């Protein structure tokens, strides 16, 4: 019998769900034993339910292909035989909030890619290298839910991953004002070019809800736990524009920063390259060995060359230059469905397991 923890993927037929299944194929700690999706997919094998909509480069894993898809709304049935769930359900925000809490109340930890609980005060929103201490709020959440093992943890929006790690690495220099424009891949909308042909050769200067997330979520990441809830930081102001561009994977950001202190370029680069966190100390399976790389070439980072840095789990920074209005400006790049979505959630689950929050039932 396998010693691996048993995982259910909720919303397993969508793009993020597919990415979960792809990442977890041959994972050393976790094994997908259950896939749940909408009632219309329930009762079919996973291969039948996905049909011609499999979007990953590698084929559907044999270990999952013939699993019979369960109805995601059958909370007790789905959670009965798994140790935790990864959530990528496609529902309204209120429906997601409700169903994720229902799973948690079955004493099944929920690690979610969804945005519904990102602002629930006692739910940690974690980038494992940046704010693992926010796991401490889980004990307060359990009291609210009336659980001993069940809880919800979430990962933040994909768009913030290309600039927030750099700003975190520079915290001692006290960044206080940031202007960022993100150039976001179409897979962030769960689509590819076949499904969205109007994106070929096109740019759309609007992504619903994205700018508010990009401006506010880093503040929660940098916040502190007070009286059982996470209180966002208030010492940094961020304003964003978010633009959809015709690339499949990779979110790029152009950012401008003002600091209270006066770092040199060499000091800023050194902080990036030496930045490390608990995942690196613990040697988590999905953790990049070097979280942030700095690229000296004027034309880097580039999506085609750099998006898969550290298996898509690292962040690439380049073009760090003094600015005439702000202090410094830079360009960042992260993989939106790996670091920014499914991969970030899997690394979060690994951190929770290594910290004793997720165990065999």
Automatic annotation (TrEMBL):
Residues 6-138 form the Semialdehyde dehydrogenase NAD-binding domain. Transmembrane segments: none annotated. Its EC number is 1.2.1.11. It comes from the Bacteria. Gene3D superfamilies: Dihydrodipicolinate Reductase, domain 2, NAD(P)-binding Rossmann-like Domain. Belongs to the aspartate-semialdehyde dehydrogenase family. One of its GO terms (molecular function) is aspartate-semialdehyde dehydrogenase activity. SMART domains: Semialdhyde_dh. It comes from Butyrivibrio proteoclasticus (strain ATCC 51982 / DSM 14932 / B316). GO terms for biological process: methionine biosynthetic process; threonine biosynthetic process. CDD domains: ASADH_C_arch_fung_like (cd18130), ScASADH_like_N (cd02315). The active site is at 158 (acyl-thioester intermediate), 251 (proton acceptor). InterPro entries: ASADH-related, Asp_semi-ald_DH_pep-lack, NAD(P)-bd_dom_sf, Semialdehyde_DH_NAD-bd, Semialdhyde_DH_dimer_dom. Keywords: NADP, Oxidoreductase. It holds the Pfam family Semialdhyde_dh. This is Aspartate-semialdehyde dehydrogenase Asd.
């Amino acid at each position: 019998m396998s010693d691996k923890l048993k995982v259910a993927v909720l919303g397993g037929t969508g793009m993020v769900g597919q990415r979960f299944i792809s990442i977890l194929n041959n994972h050393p700690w976790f094994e997908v034993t259950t896939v749940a999706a909408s009632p219309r997919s329930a009762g079919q094998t996973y291969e039948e339910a996905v049909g011609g909509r499999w979007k990953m480069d590698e084929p559907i894993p044999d270990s999952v292909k013939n699993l019979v898809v369960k109805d995601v709304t059958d909370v007790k049935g789905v959670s009965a035989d798994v140790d935790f769930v990864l959530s990528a359900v496609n529902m309204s925000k209120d429906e997601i909030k409700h169903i994720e809490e229902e799973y948690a109340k079955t004493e099944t930890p929920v690690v979610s890619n969804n945005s519904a609980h990102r602002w629930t005060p006692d739910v940690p929103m974690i980038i494992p290298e940046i704010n693992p201490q926010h796991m401490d709020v889980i004990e307060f959440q359990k009291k609210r839910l009336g659980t001993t093992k069940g809880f919800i943890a979430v990962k933040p929006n994909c768009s913030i991953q290309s600039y927030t790690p750099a700003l975190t690495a520079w915290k001692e220099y006290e960044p206080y004002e940031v202007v960022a424009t993100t150039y976001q891949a179409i897979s962030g909308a769960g689509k590819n070019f076949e499904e969205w042909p109007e994106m070929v050769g096109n740019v759309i200067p609007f992504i619903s809800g994205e700018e508010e997330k990009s401006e506010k979520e880093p503040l929660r990441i940098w916040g502190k736990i007070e009286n059982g809830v996470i209180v966002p930081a208030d010492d940094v102001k961020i304003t964003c524009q978010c633009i959809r561009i015709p690339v499949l994977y990779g979110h790029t950001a152009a950012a401008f920063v003002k600091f209270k202190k006066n770092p040199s370029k060499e000091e800023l680069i050194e902080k990036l390259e030496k930045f490390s966190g608990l995942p690196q100390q613990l040697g988590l399976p999905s953790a990049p060995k070097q979280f942030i790389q700095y690229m000296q070439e004027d034309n880097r980072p580039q999506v085609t060359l750099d998006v898969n840095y550290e298996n898509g789990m690292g962040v690439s920074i380049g073009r760090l230059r003094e600015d005439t209005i702000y202090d410094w400006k830079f360009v960042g790049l992260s993989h939106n469905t790996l670091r920014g979505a499914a991969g970030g959630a899997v690394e979060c689950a690994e951190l929770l397991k290594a910290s004793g929050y997720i165990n065999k039932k």
